[in-house]
Amino acid sequence: MNLPSGQTILSGIQPSGVLHLGNYLGAIKQWVALQDNNTAYYCIVDEHAITVPYDKEKLPEYILDTAATYLAAGLDPTKSTVFVQSHVPAHTELAWLLGTLTPLGELKRMTQFKEKENKQQAESNLGLFAYPVLQAADILLYQADLVPVGEDQTQHIELTRDIAKRFNNKFGESFTIPKAYLPEGTSRIMSLSDPTAKMSKSDLDKSYIALTDEPDAIRQKIKSAVTETEPVISFTKSGPAVQNLLQIYEAFSQLSRPAIEEKLSTGGHQKLKESLADIIIEHLQPLQEKYADLRSDETALKKVLAAGAAKANEVASKTLHLVKEKMGLA
Ligand code: AMP
Ligand code: TRP
């Protein structure tokens, strides 16, 4: 795939516990590939994480876990700006300003809001409703061209585009209109226990592979993954459960689809599962070793985040200043 260059990139993940294979293949793997020839900002969106019930003792740990995961996966702080959202106050301030340009009807349509709202009605709050506006602020502050995310985020990126266009029309050209950047084949990794649901950490433990899972756990989870009853192993003819396993395999292997089918077609589901577990373990092992190293030095991690916040603040405060001026607030 031809990688974009010369673009501004922004993305983020919530520090809400372990990251899984869906986060890695849907988002982080692309982040790493994009950092070389673009200007990249990767954020740990802690202010998004507090829109659902959370543990205030654990949040600081999760922030460092997420930072260590970013770096272990290959983000290089000399190439990418890695920072924590709440360290850059312009995010919440711009979110307020953009909120005044966001129709309630558009927010009510957001799938992620509807799902979360259904799950925890009693805990629903304004922050959860305004979540996509804060996400728009994250993106627009850096004038991002591309937002590398999984498929579930495209609706939020569309909303961001609408808000940016509305602002530009009303107050004059100010924001770059961003685009979602989805990975080929892995923009929606499905649950191992239900191929109709996306892989998610809020699901059963055996339905997702955490990036920190031990080899034995990975083997067990892949072994117990559901498959269709027909033995066919094919990117086009298998059912969705087997296709999902094949797509994960493809993402980690250097092989073409026909070569993968050829290699795995004879041993049935058992061989597919064993080979898949092997290739996941092989690829996660170096990440896990680096993670353990990085996570054990909190001072060093905090230093990276402080340097990232300083750089991010510089860019973000400039955009915010411009926006306030245009809105008559300066
Ligand atoms: P979240 O864990 O929901 O904060 O997601 C963080 C990033 O991972 C976002 O870019 C998501 O689109 C992406 N992501 C989450 N789950 C999946 C999945 N099952 N398949 C592909 N991408 C995913
Ligand atoms: N909403 C995203 C998710 O749940 C996380 C996020 C927050 C984000 N701000 C962002 C993603 C800005 C991309 C760009 O995964």
Give structural notes.
With 330 residues, the protein is mainly alpha-helical. It is 53% helix and 7% strand. The chain is built from 13 helices and 5 strands. It has helices at 21-34, 46-49, 59-72, 90-99, 104-108, 111-119, 126-140, 154-171, 215-223, 240-252, 257-264, 268-295, 298-326; strands spanning 8-13, 39-44, 80-84, 146-148, 179-181. The strands form 2 sheets. It has a 3-stranded parallel β-sheet with strand order 1-2-3. The protein has a two-stranded parallel ribbon with strand order 4-5. Helix 3 packs across helix 12 (268-295) and helix 4 (90-99) runs parallel beside helix 13 (298-326). The longest helix has 29 residues, at 298-326. It is globular, with a radius of gyration of 21 Å. The model has no long low-confidence stretch (mean pLDDT 96).
At the first level of CATH, the class of the largest domain is: Alpha Beta
CATH topology of the largest domain: Rossmann fold
Rg over CA atoms = 21 Å
The biggest beta sheet reads: 3 strands, parallel
* Count of folded domains: 2
Characteristic terms for this protein:
mainly alpha, 5 strands, 13 helices, Rossmann fold, three-stranded parallel beta sheet, 2 domains, Tyrosyl-Transfer RNA Synthetase, 330 residues, two-stranded parallel sheet
What's the gist of this structure?
This protein is mainly alpha-helical and 330 residues long.
Write the layout of secondary structure elements.
Elements: E1 8-13, H1 21-34, E2 39-44, H2 46-49, H3 59-72, E3 80-84, H4 90-99, H5 104-108, H6 111-119, H7 126-140, E4 146-148, H8 154-171, E5 179-181, H9 215-223, H10 240-252, H11 257-264, H12 268-295, H13 298-326
Parallel strand pairs: 1-2, 2-3, 4-5
